[in-house]
Structure formats: C-alpha cells, structure tokens
Amino acid sequence: MSLLKKIIVGFLLIMAIFVAIGTVYGLQVYRQMEKAALDMHQPIEGREEAVVIENSEPMSLLLLGIANDAKRKTDYRANSIMVVTVHPENGRTTITSVPRDAYVEIVGMGYYDKINHAHSFGGTEMMVNTIESYLEIPIHHYLSINMDGLADLVDAIGGVTVDNQFAFTAENIDYPEGTLYLNGWEALQYTRMRKDDPEGDYGRQRRQREVTQIIAEHMISFSGVAQIPEFLSIIGDNGETDLTLNQMTRLFTQYQNALSEIELFQMVGEGFTGDGFKGEAGISYQEVSLEELNLTKERLQQDLQ
After folding, report:
1. What DSSP designation does 241 have?
2. pLDDT digit string (tens) for 84-136?
3. Which domain holds residue 213?
4. How far, in Å, CA of 78 to CA of 101, rounded?
5. Can you tell me the distance from the alpha carbon of 42 to that of 62, in angstroms, rounded to the nearest whole number?
6. CA dihedral sign, ordered 212, 216, 217, 223
7. CA-wise closest residue to 228 among 55, 32, 92
8. For the chain, what is the domain count?
9. CA-to-CA distance for 227 and 225, rounded, in angstroms?
10. What SS3 state is found at 210?
11. CA–CA dist 288, 299 (Å, integer)
C-alpha cells in the first residue's frame, strides 16, 4: 500500500472503533478525534459537495503528501499524489499514484509544468483542478499530510526497522545497505531521497510504502490503541482535509466493503530534460504516454460510475 493510504485507513479504523464504543474512554477519544478533525478541516471555497457519502455513492479522494516540514517551511510541492476511487456497490477501491514530475498543463497558470508544482502555485484548489483536468474525473474530496507528520508518527511508535537495498547518504546521514533502525528524522530522509536511487522517484515511493506500512501496522495493533490520542494529535497538526469527522466515520462504516479490497496502480512516465521550449531548460520531467493516460482515465471513469 502507498504512503498515505495506510496511515489514512489506520486513522479511519481507529475512528470507527471508538465511535462504536460507548465507554467513557471511547467518548474521551471521540472528543479528541473531533478536535483533530476540526483542526484538519479546510474546505475548498466555491466547491459544492458532488457526492453524498451518506448515500454510499461512488467517490474519489485525492491524497497528497506535501513536501514542507520544519526545515522546508516554504516548500509546498505535492511530492506524493494519489487518486483513490471507492465504489461500495462493486466492492472495489483503487489507488492510482501519479508521478510527481508528470509534465501537464497547470490549470490557472496557462502553461505546462510538473504536476506537483500546482500545489505550490495555488494550493489545494489548483492541485485539485489540475488533477481533474488531467485525468478528466471529478475529485470529490481531498486529504493532505505534510512530512513533519511522517517523522512525528515514526517517533511516536518508537522508530522503524527497514531493509535498505543500497547504501546512500542523505542530509549528512549515512544509510548503509541492510537492516537499519531509524528515528523519525532519519526515516523522513530515508523516504525523501531520490536523486541517488537507480529507480528515481519510483524507488522513493517504494521506501515510502515500506515505512508507512510499519507505521500503519502499529497504529492498528493492540499496543497502538493506547497511543490513539497521540496519533490523532499528530495527524490533526499536520494534515488538511475537506472531510468532516462525520463524513470520515461514514466513509469507513458505509464504504467498509469496498475498503477491504484495494487495488494499486502506478502511472509510469518516460523521463526527459527540458530544453526551454518543452519544459524549463535543464529540469527533469516525466511524460506519461497518451496510451497510458487514456487507459488510466478510462479505468478511473469506470470506477466512478
């Protein structure tokens, strides 16, 4: 599963468990969930709700991992971009990863650039509009988490043990090949590095999935239950969504059948270097073929019917 998906599904599982529990502890945690949801709630102005979760209609959710953290305070690029479709009637959920360097038209800017720049240019609204235009589907809701959230979650679970496939150095930290124990800051750099990875951004996504799987497994484990307030605080402090708490809990309870079967897809592009006419000179991009793009559009459109 991908970087944000496991964290979010774990978050929804936690909420669903405690919404259903009538104990005092459950009510206390529910109040903390409510506060976290309020902290995260950032609707996009001018967008009306196009799908009614209460009616269990097919829906889409844009998941974003934002680059900014305590060190990169002004970096608002979306370095993880995933489109989720959930179809409760068909019992099907899909997660499609979009290359962060995909060369697309940025809606509202009038020119082509890396798709992840849309978020730094115009925030969530421009990012959503660009994805909708590029994939020709509606985006019903969104959820974003910044990179400080990932580091804080790793520290909260006591660090992670990963299987590093090759030696590299990032932010003056050496990562030898083999089994490594990482704290939050070390895990963050481990998941961010891509320039020295033979697979580039696709290799980075693999490391992101590795770390996130460890986090998610702990979050929904028996020992993780005691840390629910801490997890909620971290997610609330580092995330944004237009979903309300009621919508999030209904998303899990009424779409549970579809969430149990999740298919993963990765849009793949071919790298090229801008020459000043197509892209900025000297900058690397990914160009998704028309065939790949059309297949993705068709699949997503069918998933939302």
Report:
1. E
2. 898 888 888 888 889 989 999 999 999 999 999 999 899 999 999 999 999 99
3. 3-303
4. 10
5. 14
6. positive
7. 32
8. 1
9. 5
10. helix
11. 16
* CATH number for the domain harbouring residue 110: 3.40.630.190
Residue 90 corresponds to which amino acid? N
For the chain, state the CA radius of gyration.
19
Q: Name the DSSP class of 285.
A: E
CA distance 34 to 83: 25
The string of pLDDT tens digits covering residues 12-26 is: 555 555 554 444 445
The rounded distance, in Å, linking the Cα atoms of 28 and 24 is: 6
Q: What is the distance between the alpha carbons of residues 66 and 129, in angstroms, rounded to a whole number?
A: 17
The answer to whether the beta carbons of residues 57 and 71 sit under 8 Å apart is no
Residue appearing with tokens 């779409």? 255
Structure-token match 């690397």, residue found: 284
Give me 248's structure tokens: 């999030």
Q: Rounded distance, CA 119 to CA 5, Å?
A: 19
70 HSE (CA, 13 A, CB side): 10
- Residue 280 φ/ψ region, left for φ over 0, alpha for ψ in the -120 to 50 degree band, beta for the rest: beta
43 CB-near residues (< 8 Å, 6+ apart): 242
- Cβ atoms of 230 and 21 within 8 Å: the answer is no
> What's the rounded Cα separation, in Å, for the pair 8 and 182?
22
Contacts made by residues 160-169, CB under 8 angstroms, sequence distance 24+: 160/187, 160/211, 160/214, 160/215, 161/214, 162/187, 162/190, 162/207, 162/210, 162/211, 162/214, 163/210, 164/190, 166/197, 166/198, 168/193, 168/196, 168/197, 169/196
- The per-residue pLDDT for range 196-244, each reduced to its tens digit, is 888 887 788 778 778 876 886 777 666 766 776 777 778 778 888 888 8
CA distance 22 to 9: 22
